[in-house]
Amino acid sequence: MPPRNDPNDNDDLARWLSRIALGDRRAFEQLYRATSGALLSIAWRVLQHRDLAEEALQDAFVKVWHSAGLYDARLGLPMTWLINIVRHRAIDLRRSRSAALVSAHGEDDSERLAALAAPGAGPEQWLDTAIERIGVQECMGQLTPAQRQALALVYYQGLTHVEVARALEAPLGTAKAWVRRGLEYLRTCLQGRGMAAS
Amino acid sequence: MNYLRPELLDALARSHALGTLSPGAARRFTRVVAGSAVAAQAVADWQGVLQTLEQGAPPAPEPRPRVWEAVQQRLFEGTPAPAPGRDARGRRAPAGGLAAWLGWPAGLVAGALLSWSVLVLRPQAFDMEAASGVAPASYVGVLQDPQGHALLATTARRRGTVLTVRLLRPVAIEPGHALTVWAWSDADPTPRRVGGWTTPGPTSTLTLGAPAEALLGKMTHLGLSNEAAGTAPASPTRPFLAEGACAKVW
Description:
heterodimer, A: mainly alpha, Rna Polymerase Sigma Factor, Chain: A, globular, B: 8 strands
């Protein structure tokens, strides 16, 4: 079993992806060992269900095997590419199985959404932590609490705009504007620190 | 619609990266991204912005060993070690023959081709539609249950709008349920619903919403599931009752 690598070691990830595109199973295993824990956390956050999160991870790695040749280092980091594959697969699963998720939680949908949107609940905390670690607290401090909550719910848990509107008891158009505004602020703040393309 | 108008492109790229586009809009925009370096860069830029939010997310336990085992099973079971050499799009080099070119496990290809020869030359053997005087079936599937027994055979002509399905072993259709066929590709493992049937009996025909070539041309796998009748579920109930290769024979 190869030792685990830091998932942020993008040079290794890029090298493994290029080998996987050539059919190298060992590189595929190395990539899996290095990234599967971090990627599972993304799927788990969205699906809140271990079995489903592992199913999303499994689907994502099958796609990685077949699509590794499509990774383009000019467009972004390999970990960003991998995160995108897993997160979108988890969102697809979440939306297609929302009824099953509700059943698994033993709550009706409105209670579950309200719990996600509760002040200080997971997504909001995660956003605060990220903002602090990126060092953009002051810039992002200009967002209203509702805009921050909407952004956190959509990104971390894959909620649709409709679900955000229900969770925050706001009109759909307002919820969409909150998410859009939150993201635009985030990009502007990152650009100010040279951490995003202008 | 001009998707590359800067303001519209930025909005679509943002929603695409975030995952808030509707499935139809996402599929259309994915095609735009595949054909436009500007659109691909716009999406990648938003993905980079979003990735910074990962710094606040909590860790999760490691995936259980069965996940890696399942990945290997889905990709490699029954196939020899992958031959070196793939082209830039990720396909295997042609040294492995048809299976390698099409990315199918060799055993499934052999089974599908054998089934095709029987279905085309002796369709009555499976009580399926004869192809006399017209083009033979182009898309053939033989789906196996988890124990490896052939459970369902499917055929469709390339430009036809009918998928003929033949149960090779009895499958009870519960009241209010429909046996449903799904298709997906190696590149996009999200199953797409092909059609379903509720009538008992070994053979049924499913009317396709478009010529088989359009629906199945890029598909490499078929699955069979049991779904509530009268609905069009977005995703199948898993595990599948049976799975197999979707072989394009000509």
